[in-house]
Amino acid sequence: MPATPVLELRRLNKSFGPVQVLHDVSFSAEAGEVTALVGDNGAGKSTLVKCIGGIHPIDSGDYLFEGAPVHVNSPRDAAGLGVEIVYQDLALADNLDIVQNMFLGRERKRGLVLDEATMEEMAAKTLTGLSVRTVHSVRQQVSSLSGGQRQTVAIAKAVLWNSKVVVLDEPTAALGVAQTQQVLELVRRLADKGLAVVLISHNLNDVFAVSDRIAALYLGRMAAQVRTSDVTHAQVVELITSGRSGELGLANGDGLNGVKA
Amino acid sequence: MMRAGPSQEEIRRHNLGTLLRYIHLHGPTSRTVLADRLGLNRSTIMALTAELTGAGLVREKLPSETGRAGRPSLVVRPESTRFYVLAFDVGVDRLAAARVGLGGVILDRREAVRERNGFDLDEVVATLAGFARQMLRKADADTVCVGAGAAFCGVVRRGDGLVRFGPNIGQTEVPFGAALTRELDLGMTVSVANDANLGALAEHQRGIGTRCQDLIYLHGDVGIGGGIIVGGRLLGGEGGYGGEVGHMVVNPRGRACGCGSAGCLEAEVGERALLSAAGREMSEDLIGRDAIRAIVDAAERGDVLARDALHRVGDWLGFGVSNLVNIFNPEMVIFGGILREIYLSSAAQVRSRLKTNTMAAAREGLRLRTSDLGDDATLVGAAELAFTEVLTNPLEVLTRAVAAG
Ligand SMILES: Nc1ncnc2c1ncn2[C@@H]1O[C@H](COP(=O)(O)OP(=O)(O)OP(=O)(O)O)[C@@H](O)[C@H]1O
Ligand SMILES: [Mg+2]
Ligand SMILES: [Zn+2]
Question: Looking at the keywords, is ATP-binding present (chain A) (predicted)?
Fold first, then answer.
């Protein structure tokens, strides 16, 4: 019997004024898995992520967390559930060091007052726990970090605060090859630790390298959500570009009906 | 004839080894947890830890913080800085040595680049033994060496460490184990095994595969090596030569292989294949990982030759992995050495092949992962090989080691 997904969206709709961007979208993410979210430019990936993160209110549909319906109306609500979103333009404070960034906005949660030494130790432990070897000192200013290291810190922050779902919107888009490979391994480790990870990427090779499932959006509709081991590269390309591939995907015409401009 | 059951003495020795092994692999553990994990009662655990403590192999301490009320259970820790092994690694491009403490801590290490032109046994052995002497000199007087092990990039005979064949160093019948044992002169034999076999062992015991009983480790150097773990045990074969997946033929009309055959996985996926497919010659200054990285980089920037080369190589790798998945139904396939970079940059091809060429049932639980230990995998494996004896029979090996040292 399949486990209850940590995060599940059912028949979600979202319009910006007269423009419907998401149409009856269902999507789920399970603990211990990397779920890749793919789709062409403008397919609705970032919009879906912003709905998950409470930045955009949804027009209709269900948002379930660990099987129970919840209302997520703000980023605070999402964070409260343990949903952490790492946006591409990372919300790290350049003038602060790694430790300060990892505790930013959380310093006094649950009446917890932590001293600097404890915070430093927790930050360092989290990075080591993720086998991060590229960051040499947790007292380094974030402004001095490379793109990959910044992603690493953002991801480690999610782990430190015991998030259950981590959504990464194109984490490797701005990175070189070596850094991309390190971030991919980190994404995989995160899921292997038991978190539900959602990875958005335009690079299908990255998607095949680390994902367990692939969700393909086509013109605002979920064309298919499949196990990565059950599809070929060519099939995923077809799902992205035409919304269907053989038996998979939207029935004829469905994709086009989704456009209501 | 009926065999008598194990004697009390045999049971005790077995339990000592099992307990020490547990601490070695899992680190400091409380007596309560040990009793639970090893399925022994607390008084037996107490007697065993007392013996190991007496020998100096472990130390018992109160835990630093106790969550619950009541008497805290003593924590048993390995004496990592006192007992160690020497580990060696002979790769095509590097020679490495390390002093590794009980518990798997790398206490000290040395590394040198190995030139690709030829293979001089005396020189290799002299370099490794030199590293060992430097590290031994730095070790404290009260420390004890309890074993020595080496990983070698070739087909190695179990028992005496004779390298039968090293296709990528152009050698046959090299008495490497005997030569290193003689040169080290530590009063103990250096155990030698194939490097990829040891990489598999290392990933299984300390890396990404610790929870898998069935895994395959693929090691990319100039060639492709492999280690297959079935039901928690390394597959050796009759002579210990098993697991050479690099010489599985994937393309009958393929490129010539260093082993004399053609179209082997390593001939289609190894460094040479990738370089030649990308239209790049082997050059002195860009070999190994750097050469692979340069191709991955070029592909990323849109170089069509580099892209096509990675596609082709990924496709052949996919054929190879598919065969392994159909035959062994592994829970995990681990890509190590330069195969890490190759897998990560050609995963779409590899996994498309898997979908097309494997039985759904054989692949449904499969996880594809990159090595956790990275470039240390083979060296860590050599250390684990070196620890084998002391973890099987702690007290006797210790007595012998102290006498030798
Ligand atoms: N705040 C907004 N107001 C109006 N339209 C919007 C808004 N945000 C997104 N859209 C529109 O919604 C559609 C989906 O955009 P979205 O950013 O979700 O796509 P995407 O799949 O993330 O694309 P990309 O791969 O380019 O990042 C686009 O047509 C976009 O113009
Ligand atoms: Mg987007
Ligand atoms: Zn061959």
Answer: yes
CA-nearest of B143, B90, B127, B93 to B113 is: B93
Judge contact between A43 and A66, C-beta under 8 A: no
pLDDT band at A90 (very low <50, low <70, confident <90, very high): low
Flag the least confident range among A27-36, A137-146, A202-211, B252-261.
A137-146
Domain ranges, ordered by start, for chain A = 1-82+163-172+195-261, 90-161
Residues 6+ apart with CB under 8 A from B290: none
Distance CA B322, CA B177 (A): 35
Q: Which residues contact A213 (CB under 8 A, 6 or more apart)?
A: A30, A33, A34, A35, A36, A225, A226, A227, A228
- Cα-only R_g, chain A: 19
Query: Where do runs of H (alpha helix) occur along B39-88?
Result: 42-55
Q: Which of B65, B401, B384, B391 is CA-nearest to residue B204? A: B384
Q: Which of A177, A230, A231 sits opposite B297 (nearest CB)?
A: A177
Rounded CA separation A22/A43 (Å)? 8
Reduced to 3 states (helix: H, G, I; strand: E, B; else coil), residue A255 is: helix
**Two tokens at A219?**
């013109």
Nearest to A17 by CA among A52, A53, A59: A59
Q: Which residues contact B12 (CB under 8 A, 6 or more apart)?
A: B48
The identity of residue A224, as a single letter, is A
CATH, range B8-63+71-78: 1.10.10.10
* CB contact set of B159 (below 8 Å; sequence gap of 6+): B240
Closest in B341, B363, B366 to A181, CB measured: B341
| CATH, domain B83-197+378-404, list 3.30.420.40, 3.30.9.10, 1.10.40.30, 3.10.20.600 | 3.30.420.40
Confidence band of B196 (pLDDT split at 50, 70, 90): very high
Under an 8 A CB cutoff, do A208 and B348 touch? yes
Which structure tokens are listed for A146?
């490379």
Could you tell me if B222 and B272 are in contact, meaning their C-beta atoms sit under 8 angstroms apart?
yes
Instruction: Say what the pTM is.
Output: 0.91
Q: What residues 325-364 of chain B have any CB closer than 8 A to a CB of chain A?
A: 340-341, 343-352, 354-356, 360, 363-364
ipTM of the complex: 0.88
Closest CA to B95 of B68, B66, B131: B131
Cα–Cα dist A89/A103, whole Å = 19
Give the SS3 label for residue B347.
helix
B181 touches chain A (CB under 8 A): no
Write down the domain spans for chain B: 8-63+71-78, 83-197+378-404, 210-372
Non-local CB neighbours of A59 within 8 Å, separated by 6+ positions: A13, A14, A15
B372 touches chain A (CB under 8 A): yes
CA distances in angstroms from B314 to A122, B290, B339, B350, listed in the order given: 40, 18, 10, 5
Of B102, B108, B55, B54, give the one whose Cα is nearest residue B82.
B102
A101, A164, B176 from A259: Cα distances, Å: 41, 34, 70
Report which residue type is found at B105: V
- CATH architecture classification, A1-82+163-172+195-261: 3-Layer(aba) Sandwich (3.40)
Q: Which of A38, A131, A232 to mutate to test the interface with B (most CBs of B within 10 A)?
A: A232
The pLDDT tens digits of the residues spanning A221-231 come to: 999 999 999 99
The string of pLDDT tens digits covering residues A97-145 is: 888 888 876 654 555 567 788 888 888 888 887 777 777 788 888 888 8
